[in-house]
């Protein structure tokens, strides 16, 4: 349960919203559960319909453990999932085979109403670099079977890692067709870089499919919205294929949120943070995250590290919760004094210090930042001929961004690669300390993936495509179709394949490779495969 001394300390960090915030937090947090077993859980529940409508998922694996997830929701679009107020005992099991003829380990967990009858099972004692199958049972109901895996031991050098990364899946603007091909790709892992849901009211973004209800704010609102997304069969099929690592961007809470600052000037700061507490709790509920990520009111640590042996070290970042307000009114602007202010930050000092200390100690071949907004300093022409840059992306924190690039170079961090989502288009960027100075050395490579569906059907080349490339030598590739990126890593090279969907507005869309780029070990920057 949330500790009120910790709560008071947290409130002090919220720029003095003080006693009113304290009392509001207290009311909002009183229902958060202990994570201990509940003696009063119903061990023999009877359901009127299938309680496993949202499927199963796994995530955050290491070399000996993994998280298994499900939610009991016979009526998934009801705020409580059609469940009563009692906890329910759920049995879980892991096997070496899909038919469960070779059982490995099993146990029980409690699906509590306080956490939306979700289950997060932290299974340990598994063998490194091994595929497993898992399932759940509640009463007589049995879940679909999921497949998961552990990471290789940290001392080993695997021959290959194959993973996909994706972002931005607006339910109203398109179908999740990309996941159908991704499921056939037989990847080891998936990284989702944010905008898993969109918070907008029904009908605001399109009519391919329709969100339920108003713009989401309450705990029930967020639960219904996530359940509506997870009801998509292609999405929950992909979750069952392999473990996922997830981080959020803005739409899991509120568009263009910056720390505790709303993009809207008239928002009550207390109501804003209470809404964030709801958003964070349901994000935890609905994702295969470890219990250490359980939120404390409007605070939740989601930045973390994972390694695939000594082949790859992943640093999963959070560029929303700790960031300062976007400079220049969050409008495209030159990189001026406001954008270069030393106080601007996407990471916050604690996360930045954590990241730097972890990278210094890394002995992996590839060191990967899995994060949200574009790091390449990409300028767009203004009327007077100068270039303007997005203030919501890393150019809005240009001093911190340049410092990070300089850190990678000065500390000689091996083979840094940045993975990015957010902007509904694909890019390959060769990163320098200052991307505008093309005579300086390339330090890292950035692969930006397009959206799964956000924006509806895209185009291969946007208006002004040639001018964009000529104005920004850091950009090696740009594409505005929907899709995801499939990556294959070996000790010698990294290959990123840009997979695009020809139509997300109706069933039957086809996914094909559009381009592929390679990074050679020991040589910063990407080139066409």
Structure description:
With 529 residues, the protein is α+β, with helices and mostly antiparallel strands. Helices cover 18% and strands 24% of the residues. It contains 9 helices and 24 strands. The strands form 5 sheets. A 7-stranded mixed β-sheet has the order 11-10-9-21-22-23-24. Helix 4 (219-230) runs parallel beside helix 6. The radius of gyration is 22 Å and the shape is globular. The chain starts with a helix and ends with a strand. Residues 1-16 and 27-37 have low confidence and may be disordered.
- Helix % is 10-25%
DSSP strand count: 24
Main-sheet strand order equals: 11-10-9-21-22-23-24
First-to-last CA distance: 52 Å
Overall average pLDDT = 93
Summarize the structure.
This protein is of the alpha+beta class. It has helices at 4-12, 18-29, 178-184, 219-230, 233-239, 269-286, 349-360, 398-410, 465-471, and strands at residues 56-59, 66-71, 88-95, 103-111, 118-123, 131-138, 141-142, 146-149, 161-166, 189-192, 244-246, 304-308, 312-316, 366-370, 380-381, 387-388, 416-420, 426-431, 444-448, 475-479, 482-489, 493-501, 511-520, 527-528. It starts with a helix and ends with a strand.
Set out the fold topology.
Blueprint: H1 4-12, H2 18-29, E1 56-59, E2 66-71, E3 88-95, E4 103-111, E5 118-123, E6 131-138, E7 141-142, E8 146-149, E9 161-166, H3 178-184, E10 189-192, H4 219-230, H5 233-239, E11 244-246, H6 269-286, E12 304-308, E13 312-316, H7 349-360, E14 366-370, E15 380-381, E16 387-388, H8 398-410, E17 416-420, E18 426-431, E19 444-448, H9 465-471, E20 475-479, E21 482-489, E22 493-501, E23 511-520, E24 527-528
């Amino acid at each position: 349960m949330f500790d009120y001394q910790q709560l008071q300390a947290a409130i002090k960090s919220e720029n003095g919203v003080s006693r009113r915030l304290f009392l509001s937090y207290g009311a909002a947090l009183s229902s958060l559960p202990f994570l201990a077993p509940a003696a009063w859980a119903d061990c023999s529940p009877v359901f009127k319909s299938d309680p496993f409508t949202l499927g199963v998922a796994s995530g955050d694996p290491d070399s000996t453990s993994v998280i298994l997830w499900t939610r009991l929701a016979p009526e998934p679009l009801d705020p409580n999932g059609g469940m009563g107020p009692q906890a329910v005992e759920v049995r879980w099991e892991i096997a070496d085979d899909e038919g469960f003829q070779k059982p490995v380990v099993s146990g029980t967990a409690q699906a509590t109403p306080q956490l939306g009858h979700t289950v997060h099972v932290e299974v340990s004692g598994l063998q490194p670099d091994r595929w497993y199958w898992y399932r759940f049972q509640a009463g007589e109901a049995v879940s679909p079977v999921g497949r998961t895996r552990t990471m290789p031991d940290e001392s080993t050098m695997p021959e290959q890692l194959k993973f996909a990364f994706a972002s931005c899946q607006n339910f109203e603007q398109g179908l999740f067709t990309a996941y159908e091909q991704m499921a056939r790709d037989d990847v080891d892992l998936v990284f989702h870089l944010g905008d898993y849901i969109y918070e907008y009211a029904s009908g605001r973004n399109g009519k391919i499919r329709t969100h339920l209800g108003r713009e989401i704010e309450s705990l029930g609102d967020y639960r219904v919205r996530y359940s509506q997304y997870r009801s998509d069969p292609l999405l929950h099929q992909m979750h069952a294929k392999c473990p996922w690592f997830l981080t959020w961007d803005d739409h899991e809470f509120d568009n263009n949120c910056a720390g505790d600052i709303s993009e809207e000037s008239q928002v009550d700061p207390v109501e804003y943070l209470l809404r964030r507490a709801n958003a964070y709790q349901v994000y935890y509920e609905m994702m295969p995250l470890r219990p250490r990520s359980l939120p404390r009111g409007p605070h939740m640590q989601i930045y973390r590290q994972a390694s695939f042996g000594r082949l790859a070290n992943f640093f999963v970042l959070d560029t929303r919760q700790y960031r300062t307000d976007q400079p220049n009114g969050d409008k495209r602007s030159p990189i001026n004094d406001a954008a270069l202010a030393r106080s601007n930050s996407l990471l916050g000092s604690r996360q930045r210090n954590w990241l730097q200390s972890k990278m210094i100690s890394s002995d992996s071949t590839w060191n990967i930042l899995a994060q949200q907004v574009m790091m390449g300093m990409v300028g767009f022409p203004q009327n007077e001929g100068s270039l303007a840059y997005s203030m919501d992306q890393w150019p809005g924190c240009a001093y911190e961004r340049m410092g990070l690039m300089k850190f990678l170079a000065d500390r000689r961090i091996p083979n840094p690669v940045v993975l990015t989502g957010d902007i509904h288009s694909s890019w390959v960027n060769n990163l320098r300390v200052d991307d505008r100075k093309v005579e300086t050395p390339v330090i890292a490579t950035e692969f930006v993936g397009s959206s799964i569906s956000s924006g509806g059907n895209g185009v291969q080349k946007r208006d002004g495509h040639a001018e964009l490339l000529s104005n920004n030598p850091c950009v090696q590739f740009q594409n505005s179709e929907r899709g995801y990126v499939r990556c294959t890593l070996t000790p010698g090279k990294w290959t990123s394949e840009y997979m695009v969907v020809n139509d997300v507005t109706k069933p039957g869309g086809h996914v094909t490779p559009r381009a592929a780029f390679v990074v050679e070990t020991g040589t910063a920057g990407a080139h066409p495969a």
